[in-house]
Design goal:
This protein is α/β, with parallel strands linked by helices. The chain contains five helices and three strands; from the N terminus they run ααβααβαβ.
Length: 108
Amino acid sequence: MSGRATNNAITALWTAASYGIPVTVLVLANREYAILKWFANLEQVKGVPGLDLPGLDHLALAAGYGVPATRPATADELADALRDALSADGPRLIEVDLASGATLPEMR
């Protein structure tokens, strides 16, 4: 899910932790509300507030709900994190830090 969508569903981490549900949450964090930026541009609306989302700490949010989390820095680390998370007995959160407008294959 995107970083912004995580804010709307973050309490699902509590449920997963409470019931030991083995789910892996992959957060693609670009630190912006990109779809609304795109829409504002399409509609030629300037200066829309609240579309940049700096400072969201998904790892801290996950920890607050009792869910182990990681932020891999390379594609190899991401592969390792996914392997570990998918074999875990409980929930895990993996945050992939993306540049604004980036896609996952651009990760180095």
